[in-house]
Amino acid sequence: MSEDRFLRYEKCNTEIYVCKEYIENSNSINECLDSYVCKENFQLKPYIQKNGFRSITAPNFLPDTADIAASDDLIRIDEVAKVFPSKKYKNEGTEQEALTAVQMALKMKNLHKFEKAQKLFQHALALQPLHPDILNHYGEFLEEKENNIIKADHLYVRALTVSPQHSRALVNRKRTLPVVDELDEQELERIDRKRIELIQLNHNNPSLKRVKKEIYFQHIYHTVAIEGNTMTLSETRTVVETRMSVPGKSVVEHNEILGLESALRYINKTLVNKDKIAVLDILAIHKRVLGHVDPIEAGSFRQNQVFVGEHIPPLASDVVYLMEEFVDWLQSDSMLQLHPVKQAALAHYKLVYIHPFVDGNGRTARLLMNMILMRNGYPPVIIRKQDRSLYYNAIQLANEGDVRPFVRFIAHCTECTLNVYLHAQEYGAKCLMALEQPKKQDYSDIIAI
């Protein structure tokens, strides 16, 4: 590390930036750098560029500063059904009780009483949520009787995570894996077609410019709302447009909005066209995200251990090293060969896994994700506050060993955002369905994009 670089890092941290040596038997480092997301378990195929996209200049999806002026026009976001929260994997009954329920479910299946069979399988999982036999039997039922091969494949993966040598789960996974891979690739190809269609639109069209402006406000609104900010969309818009305070709202909530907008502008102006991303760039994003809220912690790695729900991030003493490894991984050949949506989702997941900051990790991760997407010609993608439970559930599933549900979730959000832009010409109709699902969702452990 050069002396100049050393000194620049020192300005961003309360302690001198010193890379620790890699400790081979360090659990916290191995857990993070074992790179589940890059291993064959997830079968992430290299991305093959299509339609000559690299020769197309990606448009600027953020509105000009001059376009952000006070207005009474709003796009309504329709509420959708609430999603289920993540399951707690706590045994609620004995193994014998659970296996008895499975046997009864199998009998109901043979009698073609599929609704009763499904309820019995779900009851068995509630009793013993991580029993490999129950997971495998339920997966077989979903695959055979409901044709839900994506969820079935996930259940086989979960069974193999608990019991790697489970023979029936191994056979089932070998059968479902290529089918699921093909389904995922088809979905990503559809998203690619929509991206190309969007790039080729006339971006000077008044309807598209208007939607671009509205999406900008919605992006800021949803990103801070996921973290608990109580500002409404119209209030968020007022803060961004006028810099005026909203009565009854805290200074922190105002500053969260201003910080997020500052970081988004910084990414669009500086990082989208930068060849390589460094640790300093991630620190610069965080400094803007948190700079108005907590100037001391802004742009600095955490110095103490934190706990995030059921996830225990790596030790604070390992964060510097892990972040160096993270940016190297971001620009590795194996990463760059993946589809841009997969790159963005995996970068988001790995950053929140390391959890390098005391606060602002989620916002920084979503901004980093959007930076990768914008570099590949996608607009900034919105994760809606209504989908917060589903979002956190997908992250939890990744922590448990299967990152594909999280990749599918981000791909789904990408498609929803693309749909809003593509419906800009129909501003009074379809565009009002801003960020709605393109098709009916299965609000369970897994969603298919």
Automatic annotation (TrEMBL):
Glycans are attached at residue 268. It catalyses: 3-O-(5'-adenylyl)-L-threonyl-[protein] + H2O = L-threonyl-[protein] + AMP + H(+); L-threonyl-[protein] + ATP = 3-O-(5'-adenylyl)-L-threonyl-[protein] + diphosphate; L-tyrosyl-[protein] + ATP = O-(5'-adenylyl)-L-tyrosyl-[protein] + diphosphate. TPR repeats lie at residues 98-131. The record marks 227 as: Important for autoinhibition of adenylyltransferase activity. The active site is at 355. Its EC number is 2.7.7.108. It comes from the Eukaryota. One of its GO terms (molecular function) is ATP binding. One of its GO terms (cellular component) is membrane. It is an enzyme of class 2 (transferase). Pfam families: Fic. The keyword Nucleotide-binding applies. The keyword Transport does not apply. ATP binds at residues 308-311, 359-366, 391-392, 399. Keywords: ATP-binding, Membrane, Nucleotide-binding, Nucleotidyltransferase, Repeat, TPR repeat, Transferase, Transmembrane, Transmembrane helix. It is found in: Membrane. Residues 277-412 form the Fido domain. InterPro entries: Fido, Fido-like_dom_sf, Fido_containing, TPR-like_helical_dom_sf, TPR_rpt. It is a single-pass membrane protein. Belongs to the fic family. This is Protein adenylyltransferase Fic. It comes from Caerostris darwini.
